[in-house]
Amino acid sequence: MNPTPSCVLIVDDEPDLRELLQLTLLKMGLQVLAAANVADACRLLARERCDLVLTDMRLPDGEGLQVVQYIQQQQLDIPVAVITAYGSTENAVAAMKAGAFDYLAKPLSLAALRALVKSALQVREPAPAAGGEPRLLGGAAAMRDVRTMIDKLARTQAAVHISGESGTGKEQAARQIHEQSARASQPFVAVNCGAIPETLMESEFFGYRKGAFTGADADRDGFFQLAHGGTLFLDEVADLPLAMQVKLLRAIQEKKVRRLGAAQEEAVDVRLVSATHRDLVQLVEQGRFRQDLYYRLNVIGLAMPPLRELRDDLPQFVARLLQRFSAGSEQPQLDEAALQALLGYHYPGNFRELENILERAVALASDGRIRAGDLQLGASGAEAALPGAQPQDGGETLQDYLDRVERAAIDKALQASDGNRTQAARLLGVSFRSLRYRLERLGMK
Ligand SMILES: Nc1ncnc2c1ncn2[C@@H]1O[C@H](COP(=O)(O)OP(=O)(O)OP(=O)(O)O)[C@@H](O)[C@H]1O
């Protein structure tokens, strides 16, 4: 028995475009309904079963955005994609923020249309069950909010920007969004934007043709081609040089890239997720990050809470990690002082730092016990626990206070490592890049 074909509602007042869309969708074996304005679209939505809506933005009696809003208000749970005029970034962004699943820019590419329809219709199938341990542990309210948001994000194609301090699980969140999305069976490509030499960026992102430059002895795919159909995760996106930001913006807007040495552009279908621990808004204000790219990447924002906001979860995290790091051997027990030290620590390097501390402690533990000394807590947490480190009366702002604590922690780590930054970063439980950034921010060069 054949399942009932999915039904797509097209909302467009241009008869030619409506017909083109209709024919394309019918050829894909789908049922099609059509409306020429907002009012007819809402009437049809109220009456008919519908699995996807494609709506033009400009309609005779209103905007496509109203169709998106109607679907949201009525809680119809139907993905809706908007068709926007060439180059109208604001419209596409507004529609995605209002809950649209994706957008198509005019002139329409039928290949892009077919790809969008396929992934939109898959979204309605239940997400695959996550196997094994969840990527993001934690039951505190802040982490529950993150999970709820991830569930929502997995149901749209909107570009997501994940903010949060170093080690808060931004990459894990990005992977989780991908794994819960309709793109789960397609590639997830993670790129550390700060780790690619500037001269290689274009070829790494967009690929190249054989002979494009000396040494290019075969065609090679770039990140965009590798992530085709799936998700492209741009980590440390703030590190992209301005020239590359322009090229990236263009690729995102056009949904097309051109390999080095190629005459033609090729269509790419990627969902973008980006992350940075830096303050992108501030970088935009300073002219170091393009505002238009920021809007494109940050259609929906996801903020990862620092570990110090998940204090209630700490005992659970500690127990899980001890179990993980002592797999295959006897699990050492924390003595009371060690437990108290862990619970009172500040964790500037967040979850990653906690992992490092416990992995090291398991290795150092003797006679099945972990003592406070085995934890080798970084200086910052201890500093934060000292009475003298409390915010001072007389108007010291929270930021000044935190900067002071951070500066002291970094100083101590640098002293302990004889000025070796790589080692200091390890002691602090942060990446080298993160330490370099902090040194710069605090004027500690
Ligand atoms: N809530 C969590 N539950 C379990 N593990 C977590 C959680 N948050 C982070 N981790 C772990 O912490 C480590 C760092 O996570 P991840 O790389 O995702 O952080 P990040 O924010 O992307 O870091 P960076 O800013 O340095 O790139 C990983 O090993 C990850 O598994």
From TrEMBL:
UniProt entry keywords in alphabetical sequence: ATP-binding, Nucleotide-binding, Phosphoprotein, Transcription, Transcription regulation
SMART domains: AAA (SM00382), REC (SM00448)
Domain Response regulatory: 7-121
4-aspartylphosphate found at: 56
Protein's UniProt keywords contain ATP-binding: yes
Domain of life of the native organism: Bacteria
Domain Sigma-54 factor interaction: 136-363
Listed Pfam families: AAA_lid_14, HTH_8, Response_reg, Sigma54_activat
Protein's UniProt name: Sigma-54 dependent transcriptional regulator
Upper lineage: Bacteria, Pseudomonadati, Pseudomonadota, Betaproteobacteria, Neisseriales
